[in-house]
Amino acid sequence: MKLLFVASEAFPLVKTGGLGDVAYSLPCALQAEGVDVRLLLPAYRDLLRKLASVRILGWLEVQGANRVHSVRILQAEHPDYPFPLWLVDCQALFDRPGNPYLQANGYDWADNAERFTVFARVAAELARDALGLGWTPEVVHAHDWQTGLVPAFLEMLPQRPQRVFTIHNLAYGGHFSQADFTALQLPSHWWSAEGVEFYGGFSMLKAGIVYSDAVTTVSPTYAKEICTPAFGYGLDGLLQSRAYKLHGILNGIDMDVWNPATDPALAGWYFTKQAEPGKSVNKRELLKRFGVSNPGSHLQYPLLGMVSRLVEQKGVDLVINAIPGLLADTEARFVLIGAGHGYFEQRLHELAAEYPERVFVFIGYDEQLAHLLEAGADMFLMPSRFEPCGLNQMYSLRYGTPPIVFHTGGLADTVTDASPQNVQSGKANGFVFHEPSSRDFSRTVRRALDCFAQPAVWDALQATGMQQDFGWSNSAAQYLDIYRSHG
Ligand code: ADP
Ligand code: GLC
């Protein structure tokens, strides 16, 4: 089976969040199952710089916004990828520094509609082998709004591949104006409520839902949630009407990249059956990295960690509001890594300045530090208000760092609360709260701290999480079923 996998980011070349991890680890898992994969990405400037050599496959003339682009299609090999990467090289659209979606000031690139329309047009051209490479995919799998137009362009091919579209986060809809629609010369028959039109503009995510043969999202619970007004961002009605083709498939994690027994970012390795002394070695190193002069004296105290995009979704405010109270009457220390909204960044800086001995903050993006935190923290905080899947809680479980999560989406599907019954039956692996408030969050942190003080209970919790298999094998098989069932 030939599969064209189309995404706007992929680890380790370009990553802003979990989509990047999945767009790397899922195609790798599928390739291991015998699928012949090509991964198509935009040739962002920073991405190109990470590649040792690229080969030109050909040129395509592609309609943009009131102009036509001459686009080069490149092929590259990368040591982390067992299949070729295909890149859409259009200098006017992708040869620029920094974040793939945002300018340095945090606003979207003004031409995002054009950038991802051109990207999608190229994907559709390659799917019909417009370059005559002798490689025609049976399945095209596209991800999130940036690739939402791919299934729509494929609709127009007389002989089209199966189109699978995955929603990683419905909160980002790829909404653009009617003026953009016109400038991009998109087919006028798409402009209807049954097509891509959305509240007077158009939505690329909607296009992906409407025009694909199967829609998937990244956990079974989120698949149900997005069919309700509370989580649907105005698309819940559409999703309900497409329930026949909607599937919730839990993301897997890359068990090699995230393995505490081999992770090069760690100061000490450890194994499923024996987290200590490895975890303490990492805790000491983590504290040292944050400038703590005598990390040994902190080792006995619980260290609560968080790695997150600093946005409303992630419940950062719940953590910020809860920290002063928790510092007042517990021994907890906090270590927080993140970047995002200026307000949250500033509040975290302020907390670190106010409590220099107990709150440690890094504002920025640091993949290695994130790995070290997963290993060195005692607990992981993930109070997301909604979470399509979430990968960090699974990384935490694998690293013996029980997560504290709100009951939603993929968090609900992966974390089992340490209630007395669940502890007794050996099912508990973390802590779950049910009301998205600082109060309920704080209460649950205190419950976790009580558990931490009982070594036998804590060891059992850690062991349960570390022994679980969050790898891709089960979920990759489900994707294969979908590729085949729609074939
Ligand atoms: P989301 O995709 O919504 O951000 P996930 O939990 O699925 O949430 O994935 C987040 C990914 O991004 C994880 O691999 C996490 O380690 C990483 N990440 C997020 N923020 C940072 C950061 N500031 N530094 C390093 N890694 C980060
Ligand atoms: C999105 C979601 C996150 C999910 C990730 C990968 O960024 O916010 O929950 O884990 O995509 O699917």
Task: Describe the model.
A nine-stranded mixed beta sheet has the order 3-4-5-2-1-6-7-11-12, with helices on both faces. The protein has 487 residues and is α/β, with parallel strands linked by helices. The chain has two domains: 2-252 and 473-485, 3-Layer(aba) Sandwich (Rossmann fold), CATH 3.40.50; 278-466, Glycogen Phosphorylase B (Rossmann fold). Helix content is 38%, strand content 19%. Helix 11 crosses helix 14 (367-376), helix 12 (316-329) packs parallel to helix 13 and helix 15 packs across helix 19 (455-467). The model has no long low-confidence stretch (mean pLDDT 97). The chain starts with a strand and ends with a helix. The structure holds adenosine-5'-diphosphate and alpha-D-glucopyranose. Residues 17-19, 21, 307-309, 337-339, 365-367, 370, 389-392 line the site of adenosine-5'-diphosphate. The site of adenosine-5'-diphosphate has 18 residues, from helix 1, strand 13, strand 14 and helix 14.
